[in-house]
Design a protein that fits this description.
about 110 residues
């Protein structure tokens, strides 16, 4: 009877240890899986942040380039406008000079 009791207790202790080991293994597996998921999520978060930063930089560079191009065209248009004004003034002066010459010739003919 005593022997059966000891055997039963021994068997119970063995089962208890096996159960504890099984739970430890499951807990470790669960912890490893949680850490793996956290690592994956962290990597995805970092990728997302990197992509967001790259998009922001790309947008800033495009805006900078657009402003530079606009400034270049503004300068070109201003230069063109000034050149047109200069040419118009020159043409007006030439016309005025020509008109004076014609007037002189007409006055000479009338005399």
């Amino acid at each position: 009877m005593e022997r059966e009791k000891e055997d039963l207790q021994s068997k119970h202790e063995i089962e208890k240890k096996q159960m504890k080991m099984t739970m430890d293994v499951e807990r470790q597996a669960h912890d490893q899986e949680r850490k793996r998921r956290e690592t994956v999520m962290q990597r995805e978060r970092e990728d997302w942040e990197r992509q967001k930063q790259e998009a922001r930089q790309r947008k800033e560079e495009e805006e900078k380039w657009r402003k530079k191009e606009q400034a270049m065209w503004d300068e070109y248009n201003e230069t063109l406008k000034q050149e047109m004004e200069r040419m118009n003034m020159k043409m007006a002066e030439e016309k005025q000079k020509h008109d004076k010459e014609r007037e002189k010739m007409n006055l000479r003919r009338e005399q």
